[in-house]
Write a structure and sequence with these properties.
Chain lengths: 114, 113
Amino acid sequence: AQSVTQLGSHVSVSEGALVLLRCNYSSSVPPYLFWYVQYPNQGLQLLLKYTTGATLVKGINGFEAEFKKSETSFHLTKPSAHMSDAAEYFCAVSRPGTASKLTFGTGTRLQVTL
Amino acid sequence: KAGVTQTPRYLIKTRGQQVTLSCSPISGHRSVSWYQQTPGQGLQFLFEYFSETQRNKGNFPGRFSGRQFSNSRSEMNVSTLELGDSALYLCASRRGNENTEAFFGQGTRLTVV
C-alpha cells in the first residue's frame, strides 16, 4: 500500500518569501512522486514529477522538489512567492505497474499575503 | 491542442437517480482515469480505462461504473445516487505509457439533493 502525508493544511507566506510545502510518502516499492496545483473550480495541473534519475526536480512556475529516499520526503519549494501562487497544492504517489493510480495527500492551501 | 473535456460541468440530481458523466481525453491519449474529490475524503481514485478495458480499480462500491469507447472517450455512471456522492468528479487522460503525465479536466460538480 502507499500513502501520502502533507503537513499543514494551510500555509501562509508573504509575497517574496520562501514557499515550503511538506510531503512525506509511504511506499513498499520505489515510488513515482508528483506535485499538482488546483485553482478554485478547476482541475489539477502538474507542477513537477519524479520517476527516476536526478532527485532534484524542477517544475513549472519556479517550483522545485527534492526526492529524499532516506527521509521518505518530497517537499515542494519556491524561492520567492507570488500572489498568483495562492492555490491548493497536492502531493501524490503512484508506483510502477499501476502508474495511473495516484494516491493523493489531503492538500495544502497556500495563502500569499502582501 | 485541446485539453481534457468533461461534460457537463455542473449537475444536480435527486437521491436514488442515476447519472452519467462524460470525459473526452486529449487526442492520442488512450488512458482515462476517474477521481472523486470531496472535502471529507479528498481525492480518491475510482478506476482507469485503457483501450476500452478497465485496467485499475479503486475501492468504490459497484454503483460506480465506467466504460471507454473505441475513440478513447469515457463515461462514468453512478446508480442509485446517495447524498454522499456529491463531489467534484475529475477525469485524467494519459498517453498510456508508464511515466507519462496525467492531464486533468476541469471536472463535473455533482450535487445530490
